[in-house]
Amino acid sequence: MAGLDRKTPIPTEITLHKKSRTLEVGFDDGSRYTMTAEFLRVYSPSAEVRGHGPGQETLQTGKRNVEITALDPVGNYAVQPTFSDGHNTGIYSWDWLHHLGADHDALWAEYLERLETAGASRDIDSTTLPPKSGGCGSH
After folding, report:
1. How many structural domains comprise the chain?
2. Domain holding 75: CATH number?
3. Between helices 104-118 and 94-102, what is the axis angle to 10°?
């Protein structure tokens, strides 16, 4: 986490909209962001997604229909969502949530570009596909 300080915008309202699969966050600086569960899942701050350093990120695929099934507070500085695919190790600090909201459009475009470059899909989780096999029987 980047670290909270007195300049970090603090949420004044966090609303999980289960039907639309969005999280709405209003901050004390007057900003308000609505982010989809898919967006939050692919930008999870967890080591599983981000790795332990630059270049170690894991491209998240097949997350179009993911939902947030639970949202738990973490002290006075973050929330920890549980996603319908079982992912629950990301701790979203206030500064991370604000960053995701403020930079949403650029981050989303970057994610879609990474998917396209990898030949991956928002609908198919390529991390769980069995390996392709060749050999006999294919003519």
Report:
1. 1
2. 3.30.2020.30
3. 80
How many residues belong to the chain? 139
Residue 79 lies in a domain: yes
Among candidates 38, 43, 49, which has minimal Cα distance to 96?
43
Q: How far apart are CA 110 and CA 49, in angstroms?
A: 15
Q: What is the mean pLDDT of each run of 10 residues along the chain (139 residues)?
A: 74 97 97 98 94 87 97 96 96 97 98 96 76 42
Report helix, strand or coil for 82: strand
DSSP state of 20: T
3-state helix, strand, coil split of the chain in percent (to 5) is 25, 25, 50
